[in-house]
């Protein structure tokens, strides 16, 4: 790790190396066993979760929270090989003990194959309209990881029907619709998103 600098609200900005790439992440909260790892969508970065208050909210509830810039986004380098192995190494390097994984939109390309291979390394999964569900539907069949699928009711990019497909495959999954919100529903219905996320995290831990 290097470039350790203090940010607002005690959020730390750090780098680590994964698959020969310098990866940037934000971190808040104590080094607790209860942790949450945030990925991001194509138009966003780790900083999004700081800006809408997710990191501060969960840190104040005594969770360790980490938000990463995926390879090629934010200030992370764009060098990588295997998406599931990237997340496995990241979780190991950060010493996250079975975190809850929050994965919106584009980051489904990382989280879904990771769950297929390494569901036992997580305590829970919060897919937020992730891409790629139909391509992994058969492989997700029967995975019992506690899952909260969050969708905007007006999502025009990833249809709500894909949330229902996820629920069909994963027996421990449930769905929340954020009303009058689109694809990046956490930006429009932030308070309700935080309420549902926190309730799920508390139920898992």
Stretches where pLDDT is under 50 for at least 5 consecutive residues are: 1-8
Instruction: Write the element-wise H/E pattern from the N-terminal end onward.
Output: EEEEHHEHEHEHEHEHH
- What's the shape? globular
Q: Overall mean pLDDT score?
A: 92
Biggest beta sheet attributes: 9 strands, mixed
Major β-sheet strand ordering: 1-2-3-5-4-6-7-8-9
Strand % is 15-25%
Annotation field: number of helices: 8
Number of strands: 9
Cα-based radius of gyration, to the nearest Å:
16 Å
Description:
The chain contains 8 helices and 9 strands. With 205 residues, the chain is of the alpha/beta class. β6 (100-104), α4 and β7 (124-128) form a beta-alpha-beta unit. α3 (83-93) packs across α4 (108-118). It comes from Limnofasciculus baicalensis BBK-W-15. GO terms for molecular function: hydrolase activity.
SSE inventory with pairings:
Layout: E1 2-6, E2 12-18, E3 21-28, E4 35-38, H1 46-51, H2 54-60, E5 64-68, H3 83-93, E6 100-104, H4 108-118, E7 124-128, H5 133-136, E8 147-152, H6 161-169, E9 173-178, H7 185-188, H8 190-204
Parallel strand pairs: 4-5, 4-6, 6-7, 7-8, 8-9
Antiparallel strand pairs: 1-2, 2-3, 3-5
Helix pairs in contact: 3-4
InterPro entries: AB_hydrolase_1 (IPR000073), AB_hydrolase_fold (IPR029058)
Protein name: Alpha/beta hydrolase
Subcellular location: Cytoplasm
What's this model, at a glance?
The protein is an alpha/beta fold.
